[in-house]
């Protein structure tokens, strides 16, 4: 996945069964600055041609595939060892309310599947909207599977580019929603002022008085 700030592509190798989710390896793949800026231009509402949007979709899909293959090489695994890749893509437009709610992600899953040879599953957000949801956040289902308790009510706060919470209660459907900006404003500010994609270890913030 790539997040709101677009400073990298993060890949996680996980073993999942009915009871556990175990992270086995991870890899952070750099995002080329030219690609990052082109995607940010789309996200910020700049006019683009369908050709440009299609090319960005392909280029990002290829980058996702490249990141997966590097992780497999690092872990000395074969593509046959992997059951599936899940990729929700990079959101460039999200409008989940109105007469025709919609959301648009790029990062072509067909490129990922073709270049890795691994079954690739995606387009989660549009499916959620089609079923009456808002397409975001996606993480409450994961939190429910990992952190649900039979007797306790729990709230999980996830601070990414956009912050969101998951509400976990016994005998109740899982619920979750976005609460507002998370790290995206901090990332945008340091990018503008320092030319850095994010404030690593809060080093710049620590210089404040």
Q: What CATH architecture of the largest domain do you see?
A: 2-Layer Sandwich
CATH superfamily label of the largest domain: ATPase, nucleotide binding domain
| String of helices and strands | EEHHEEEHEHHEEEH
* Quantity of strands, as a count: 9
Q: Radius of gyration over alpha carbons?
A: 18 Å
Contiguous uncertain segments of 5+ residues: none
Strand content: 25-35%
Helix segment count? 6
CATH top-level class of the largest domain: Alpha Beta
For the largest beta-sheet, the strand count, sense and barrel status come to: 3 strands, antiparallel
Widest sheet: strand order? Answer: 7-8-9
In whole angstroms, the N-to-C terminal distance is 35 Å
Q: What is the overall silhouette?
A: globular
Number of domains: 2
pLDDT averaged residue by residue: 93
CATH topology of the largest domain: Nucleotidyltransferase, domain 5
| Helix percent band | 25-40%
Going by helix content, strand content and strand pairing, the class is alpha+beta
Spell out the blueprint of helices and strands:
Layout (H helix, E strand, L loop, with lengths): L7 E9 L4 E10 L2 H11 L6 H26 L9 E3 L2 E6 L6 E5 L2 H8 L3 E3 L1 H7 L8 H9 L6 E6 L2 E7 L6 E7 L2 H11 L15
Parallel strand pairs: 3-6
Antiparallel strand pairs: 1-2, 4-5, 7-8, 8-9
Overview of this protein structure:
With 209 residues, the chain is of the alpha+beta class. The protein folds into two domains: 1-136, ATPase, nucleotide binding domain (Nucleotidyltransferase, domain 5), CATH 3.30.420.40; 137-208, ATPase, nucleotide binding domain (Nucleotidyltransferase, domain 5, 2-Layer Sandwich). The protein has helices spanning 33-43, 50-75, 109-116, 124-130, 139-147, 184-194; strands spanning 8-16, 21-30, 85-87, 90-95, 102-106, 120-122, 154-159, 162-168, 175-181. The strands form four sheets. It has a three-stranded antiparallel β-sheet, with helices on one face. It has a two-stranded antiparallel ribbon with strand order 1-2. Helix 1 (33-43) packs across helix 2 (50-75). The mean pLDDT is 93.
């Amino acid at each position: 996945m790539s997040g709101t700030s677009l400073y990298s592509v993060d890949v996680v190798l996980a073993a999942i069964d009915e009871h556990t989710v175990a992270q086995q390896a991870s890899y952070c793949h750099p995002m080329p600055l030219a690609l990052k800026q082109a995607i940010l231009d789309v996200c910020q509402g700049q006019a683009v041609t369908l050709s440009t949007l299609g090319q960005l979709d392909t280029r990002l899909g290829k980058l996702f595939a490249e990141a997966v293959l590097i992780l497999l090489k690092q872990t000395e695994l074969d593509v046959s060892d992997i059951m599936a890749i899940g990729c929700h893509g990079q959101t460039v437009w999200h409008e989940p309310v109105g007469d025709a709610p919609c959301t648009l992600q790029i990062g072509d899953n067909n490129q990922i599947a073709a270049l890795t040879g691994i079954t690739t599953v995606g387009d989660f957000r549009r499916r959620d909207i089609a079923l009456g949801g808002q397409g975001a956040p996606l993480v409450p289902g994961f939190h429910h599977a990992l952190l649900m308790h039979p007797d306790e009510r729990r709230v999980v706060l996830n601070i990414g580019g956009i912050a969101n919470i998951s509400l976990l209660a016994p005998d109740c459907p899982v619920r979750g929603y976005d609460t507002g900006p998370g790290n995206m404003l901090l990332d945008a500010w340091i990018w503008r002022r320092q030319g850095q994609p994010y404030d690593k270890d809060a080093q710049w913030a620590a210089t404040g008085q």
